[in-house]
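Write out this protein's structure.
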Amino acid sequence: MTNEPKILACVDASPVAEVVADYAAWAARRLAAPLEFLHVLDRHAALPQGQDHSGAIGLDAQEKLLTQLSQEDALRTRTARETGRVFLNRWRERALAAGVATVDTRLRHGDVEETLAEQQEGTRLLVLGRAGAGTTSANASANVSTTGEPGLGKHLTWVIRSVKRPVLVVTKAYTEPSRVLFAFDGSAVTRKGVEMLAASPLLKGLPIHLLMSGDATPQNQRPLAWAVQTLTQAGMVVSSALQPGQPQEVIAEVLKTRAHDLLVMGAYSHSPLRQLFLGSKTSELLKSASLAMLLLR
């Protein structure tokens, strides 16, 4: 693997892994960046059912049981690692077939949060699914999987709050982005996002609609005009609108009436959108939106 900043795609044993792989391949092609698939194995493997682990047995039997459990644990670990390597190779082959030049895989045994924190360095974009392993539907909560099993879905809120890289959150189906809605609020985060997109090939050539909620005041019109000018000067096709109302309501209405397949937003900005990400509106939007979301940091 090169030292060039990579696209990091987090995959687990859920149907959304295929969607993650396809969006990650799309981003890697657009950015001409290396792609790495990450799969994290749970460090707490479930014990087999029907065994007496109470300790209410003789010393010899306890020693035999401990030896047996140790052997079984080692076997489960080896099996999980081999299964994980096969699983990751599937997505590697898929990305190569999709035209990605450089694809690598990384298998880790431990905690998703700790692993992602470690992997931030050298990562250009993080791609993960809205619902991970254990969710019975792509509309399951982004915070907790419906069955309580470990998976990326229940770690989504932590990732959005904690990582310092842009996060592409994908849903139940892959649609190659062709029309982009940028929820712009004039904050430092979204202004930086405009500059990032202007300097990046990720969305070059795609129509971008800048949407800002609020009244038509100079305080709102100036930053919106700046964003349009910055993106236009970078050769991007840009339209804009300033609409009164609350951000989440304005966004939802535009998504209903216009055909967009990628939503760009700032995460944790000190703006009206901050409330969207600090309150329950985050989970509501993640559960209800049927399009991919690029969250800027």
